[in-house]
Inverse folding.
């Protein structure tokens, strides 16, 4: 079958022929890939800064944001039947008996670092025609979400981030909603826009701070949601502060340290700053560490990083996607900028980064 393979040693990205997978376990499911999203992580893997092939393979099949249809099930599979739509998760547990998180299906908190990730770290991904997976790593997708379900995985980033926010804010008599609270989303990529939607449905007044001058397709999309897009090029931080007021939650989705630590200065009393971006290595930058530390203490602030997502976040993403589709049908569809055939892999992965979420259609 056809697949997009990354060869780190050769520094090559190619369309390859990859052996079709087979069901080997009673609870495994064979899936025909419908479509796969392309994200910054994929592009970074294709610049050979990140990503590791499975042991014994000189290539890694790329792709970790997939929607597929079940075409075969193992004899003890209970949750799925042929024809069901599914979204697979990304991370697989390490095999250390002592790793408490992995032993309770919370490999998103793996404590050994020996986890694998499909399409990223030591396990092939989904940019291919078929894949096989244990049923517990799959989330069912209602048919009515077929056109947008490829967005589930990037939305799980926001779902896990919000779960962290609620856990942290359990320390306050605040309750599980964003009413009368201000959230700022840093970055207007797919993870930022989906995060803004998740914050809006929870009642937060939501501002999106992103580089490109407005108007542009992303600013228009963001404003159509009822959030407010502010360009960091047009509005410097001091001016943005007047507009935002003290911020209760920052949802960082840009992976740039300089602007993140600048924005941290605007975090308010009892605020939470969630980092989700993974910046590439760059030269050191000065930050106002004393005043930041002073605020972290005197304002009871929490800085929390979050990576990957568990099955609960996948289920929450499916639920929220249904809510988003009711509330913003056109805007949600517009997050997917364009669908391409697999042959377009090269321009999508190593060409200029265009649009919001580009998707490769496979079946
Ligand atoms: C994926 C995560 C993964 C992370 C680090 C992200 O793009 O969405 O599932 O854990 O990369 O590899
Ligand atoms: Zn991704």
């Amino acid at each position: 079958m056809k697949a997009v393979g990354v060869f780190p040693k050769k520094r090559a990205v190619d369309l390859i022929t990859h052996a079709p997978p087979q069901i080997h376990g009673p609870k495994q499911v064979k899936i025909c890939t419908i479509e796969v999203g392309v994200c910054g992580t994929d592009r970074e893997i294709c610049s050979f800064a990140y990503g590791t092939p499975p042991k014994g393979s000189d290539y890694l099949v790329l792709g970790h944001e997939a929607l597929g249809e079940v075409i075969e099930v193992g004899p003890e599979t209970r949750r799925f039947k042929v024809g069901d739509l599914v979204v697979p998760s990304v991370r697989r547990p390490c095999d250390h008996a002592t790793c408490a998180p992995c032993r309770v299906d919370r490999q998103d908190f793996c404590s050994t670092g020996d986890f694998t990730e499909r399409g990223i770290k030591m396990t092939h991904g989904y940019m291919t025609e078929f894949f096989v997976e244990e049923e517990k790593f799959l989330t069912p997708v209602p048919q009515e979400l077929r056109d947008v379900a490829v967005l589930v995985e990037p939305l799980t980033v926001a779902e896990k981030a919000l779960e962290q926010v609620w856990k942290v804010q359990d320390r306050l008599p605040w309750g599980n909603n964003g009413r009368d609270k201000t959230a700022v989303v840093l970055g207007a990529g797919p993870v930022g826009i989906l995060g803004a939607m998740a914050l809006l449905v929870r009642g937060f007044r939501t501002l999106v701070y992103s580089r490109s001058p407005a108007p542009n397709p992303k600013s228009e999309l963001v404003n159509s949601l009822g959030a407010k897009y502010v360009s960091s090029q047009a509005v410097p931080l001091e001016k943005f502060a007047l507009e935002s007021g003290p911020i209760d939650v920052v949802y960082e989705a840009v992976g740039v340290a300089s602007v993140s630590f600048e924005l941290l200065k605007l975090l308010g009393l009892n605020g939470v700053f969630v980092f989700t971006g993974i910046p590439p290595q760059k030269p050191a930058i000065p930050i106002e560490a004393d005043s930041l530390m002073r605020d972290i203490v005197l304002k009871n602030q929490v800085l929390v990083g979050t990576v990957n997502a568990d099955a609960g976040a996948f289920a929450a993403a499916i639920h929220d996607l249904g809510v988003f589709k009711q509330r913003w049908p056109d805007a949600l569809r517009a997050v997917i900028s364009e669908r391409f055939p697999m042959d377009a892999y090269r321009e999508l992965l190593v060409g200029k980064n265009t649009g919001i979420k580009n998707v490769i259609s496979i079946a």
Observations:
- The domain at 155-305 is CATH 3.40.50.720 (Rossmann fold).
